[in-house]
Design goal:
The chain contains 6 helices and 16 strands. With 242 residues, the chain is α+β, with helices and mostly antiparallel strands.
């Protein structure tokens, strides 16, 4: 028997109808926090749903059934998803084999204002495509989870400019002497960042600065578009963290 989709689900701001498991994990781990959650269609059981929840820096997935009148979760039955969420706002979910207890705290909205790069990759993910050209071709997971590339940085003590390999992962911006190095020269915790803005004081084109509690970093990119991408993502990350 074919059970129609629940209209209540389609109206939820945190329902992501075309998101698969892999990209749900990427969005929650990169952009969410413990207790962030979203609902998507199940990829294994047609007509059912999957609740993806971030807990302890990982993402767990829970199957939610729909029989045409009630939502089912394990032995529980709920007349609405509002009742389901209210129940697990106070009673934690058990995160699979890890045993991590997680409360539903932060719905991850479908229409969140994300940087253009994230939104472009999300569209590719939802339609089952990948970018066909460019430096990130075939690396959709990396594009969602981080940004990386060479930038040129002004030294702190010796005032000379040196190219460094920068990697943005979660709330950390790391830079390495060169691509492929295992240990970063330094890791900047963006949760402590005081500001990010374009920089015209250095005399370098495509320059921006990152202000940390003990130092302001002056950095320039190889092109204006690359600078804009870094500034946009870093500003969005900073706003989201705060």
């Amino acid at each position: 028997m074919n059970i129609p989709q629940c209209k209540e689900v389609e109206q939820l701001s945190w329902f992501h109808p075309n998101l698969n498991r892999h990209h749900a994990e990427a969005l929650l781990i990169q952009n969410g926090q413990d207790g962030s959650y979203l609902l998507r269609q199940s990829t294994t059981n047609k007509g059912e749903y999957s609740l993806s929840v971030r807990c302890a820096n990982s993402a767990k997935h829970f199957q939610i059934g729909w029989d045409g009148s009630h939502f089912t979760f394990g032995m529980g039955r709920f007349s609405s998803l509002k009742d389901f969420v209210e129940h697990f706002e106070n009673k934690p979910l058990i995160g699979g084999e890890s045993g991590v207890l997680t409360l539903l705290k932060h719905p991850y909205p479908r229409d969140v204002q994300e940087p253009v790069q994230y939104e472009t990759i999300r569209v590719h993910a939802e339609w089952g495509n990948r970018p066909s050209s460019g430096s990130n071709a075939g690396r959709t997971d990396l594009s969602i989870n981080s940004k990386e590339g060479y930038l040129t940085k002004l030294g702190g003590r010796v005032k000379n400019w040196k190219a460094r390999w920068f990697v943005l992962v979660k709330n950390e911006l790391r830079y390495y002497r060169t691509k492929g190095d295992e240990t970063p020269i330094r890791t900047l915790d963006l949760s402590k960042c005081e500001g990010i803005k374009e920089d015209s004081s250095s005399g370098k084109a495509n320059c921006f600065q990152i202000t940390m509690p003990n130092r302001t970093y002056h950095i320039y990119a190889s092109s204006s578009s690359e600078k804009e991408e870094w500034v946009e993502i870093l500003k969005w990350k900073l706003q989201h963290l705060k």
